[in-house]
Amino acid sequence: MIYSDDFVEEVRSRSDIVDVVGQYVHLEKRGANYFGLCPFHNEKTASFSVHAGKQIFHCFGCGAGGDVFKFVREYENMTFPEAVRSLAERAGMQVPEEDDSPAAKQVRDRKQTLLAINKAAASFYYHQLYQDNGKRGLEYFQNRGLTNETIRHFGLGFADMGGNKLLAHLRGQGYTDAQIIEAGLAAHDEKRGAYDKFWNRVMFPIMDASNRVIGFGGRVMGEGKPKYLNSPETPVFDKGRNLYGLNYAKNARAGHVILCEGYMDVIAMHQAGFTQAMASLGTAFTSMQANLLKRYTEEVILSYDSDEAGIKAALRAIGILREAGLRGRVLDLTPYKDPDEFIRAEGAEEFGNRLKKALDSFFFELKVAERAYDLNDPGGRTRFIREAAKKLCVFTEPIERENYLAATASRYGVSQDDLRHLVSDIASQEGIRAPAVTVRREQRRQDAATAAEEEELKKSAPQRMLLTWLTEEPALLPAVERYLSPEDFNDEMCRRVAEQLFGMIREGQLKPAAVVGSFPEEEQSRVTAILDTPFDRGETTAQREQALSHLVREIKRRAMEQEQAALDPATPDYFRIAVEGRKKIDALKDLHIKLQEG
Fold first, then answer.
1. Long-range contacts made by residues 483-489, C-beta under 8 angstroms, separation at least 24?
2. What is the pTM of this model?
3. 203 belongs to a structural domain
């Protein structure tokens, strides 16, 4: 959905960033701004600031920054349209529909009806749990160690033996049999007509990232088959594109997520304090689920069952995570089968210790591969090392491959040089890019790039300071414009910011947050840093005049020097132009900007 610029600006103006951020972060006012612990990285000293006047946030620790839309997008892992809609609804605004055509409206209405049916069913199942006929279900959850608060939090419920209680309840709310069947909550045959799909089961509502009930999972009471029954695919439920517990886990801020197999595993971990846990929905882990996870994390800890089936599932998931660009680790739960069993036996603290020791996915693969070889036999050991070398070829980045190569050599007592040559031989034989012979060269290139970036930041400092000053004192622009134009900002990003900022101030409509929001998402943090550059501008009028004059002089000097350096010696009157230009640069030392008192 693409919203109009006018609508976006209206949402921005009605969404005070201090109020919005304050819902997620404890903020304390210091001077004109608010400070708190950054929600985007772990820190003990508050370096995260929110500017009420500029309507932007900026973390001096990790560099995160942007407007109110960027904050909601980053914190809630939303797309831009989702963030606009969320803030608009928060502000009580009417949100434009995506498509006003009758066909599009029919599709939206159909989905909304299915979501409403699911919500009503979840409420029904939950209340059934606390009726006399739901006693078996409640005892089941209590025997599994769940508190009433956890049961309420996850909306757990119960579907009674036989009958069509849910069907009758939903009919009473005005829904048709066809709608209830389409929602996956009822089925139909010629003999019985419409009937409840779930019965004699404890119920697990499945929610999407927006906390909407999209489907259900049900575990049978007793020995019936199937043990677990999930909702079928519907217009609002796609098992391969959703994850159980995602609606809570996405805000855990643990630096990783825990991916497991069962509903009870997720619930047990959340109750124990590990709210970063989620699970696939009765299917094998999919690439679509991996791409969904990538919106929320860079690292996934696999907590699958410790039996043979769980090991195979973990190996398969590792490949999918790697393909999606996610780091993987594997949790060792032995001698217990799953997280629920482990936590009930050993407790949350020990589970946390196991999490810290989770094995890197590559070494988990090697550990599993060891079982196929006799490492005490020279031939078996040789074949295993060759298998390890082959696996090292999956790392295409030289430094990453070298790090894993060194760790593998150390773990299995092999010469790094011998292993490196073996990897190179296998890579060349199989058409894989060979690892770099020396990684130091790559490191030197990275160090040089970092030094160059730091030098560029140093050169652009006066530009960033002046732009920050103008966002706070736009009345300075007339004095500045006597000497500078946006073209004098030789840092490309600063020049683009200056073009917008100067124009807004001239029109009397300064909105720093709108400047930030006009840039692509990947550039917004840098733009925010430009508009939030700390510096000392002095307190007295004389000190302020001196500081402003210095910034303008430096920006103008660098612009003129750049212009001089670009002169072509073949240009007519080259020497005269060059000499005159140098005189103008020298004359800048006398530039002094006068400010009005007060």
1. 483/552, 483/556, 483/591, 483/593, 484/552, 484/555, 484/556, 487/559, 488/555, 488/556, 488/559, 489/463, 489/555, 489/559
2. 0.68
3. yes
